[in-house]
Amino acid sequence: MSFNIAIDGPAGAGKSTIAKKIAAELSFIYVDTGAMYRAMGLLFLRKGIDPKNAAAIEEAAEEAHVTIGYENGEQQVYLNGENVTASLRTETVGNMASATSVYPGVRRQLTVLQKDLAAKQDVVMDGRDIGTAVLPNAQLKIYLTASSHVRAVRRYEELKAKGMESDLSVIEADIIERDHRDMTREVSPLCKAEDAVEVDTSGLTIDQVVDVVRRLYQERAEVSV
Ligand code: DC
């Protein structure tokens, strides 16, 4: 049986950084589910569909085919056969993904793909509903959090390092709005699974968070042998 680690939490809590490091250490496959929702979001943006138009979104989602692959260990996302990985990390695509991930037709297709990936191999999967809806039987569930201010500062620094000027208060307002949308949607809202371990990363370094997750993995792996 495969060993599944589910990591959920709001945008900017450090999920992908931690998940990638743990996956590399354990030689597990890292699955970034947010990138799949972003690929769907990119499709809707390209088609010029209003995210509030439920019928148009559901119809377009039915025709969309999202798959993933790996190049040099890095996840690649394909939208109808086109590698769209390089176009997914913008704020516009992220906001579209957040707005359209509320639709059952969008979630259904991606959830099937995610469950299938985790059934076949050891994975560290990050997202919003992994411990609650996608992998309810994951052997280890982590819920990563950090204050909205800390998350905004991280994003601000990330953009600055790329030479992009931004406004910290706008970023924080955007994060708060995205959290609200992700936590209050009807289908699979972001919430901590009952059996998830909550880790607040606000005052921790990346290595400290990795240490916590590694320790939890070692405990669970011993039990499941
Ligand atoms: O983690 P991210 O910022 O790449 O995710 C983009 C959006 O996709 C996020 O705001 C909500 C949605 N999402 C989701 O609904 N369920 C997931 N498992 C992952 C992401």
TrEMBL record:
Its main location: cytoplasm. GO terms for cellular component: cytosol. This is Cytidylate kinase. Residues 5-217 form the Cytidylate kinase domain. One of its GO terms (molecular function) is dCMP kinase activity. GO terms for biological process: nucleobase-containing small molecule interconversion; pyrimidine nucleotide metabolic process. Keywords: ATP-binding, Cytoplasm, Kinase, Nucleotide-binding, Transferase. It is found in: Cytoplasm. It catalyses: CMP + ATP = CDP + ADP; dCMP + ATP = dCDP + ADP. The keyword Nucleotide-binding applies.
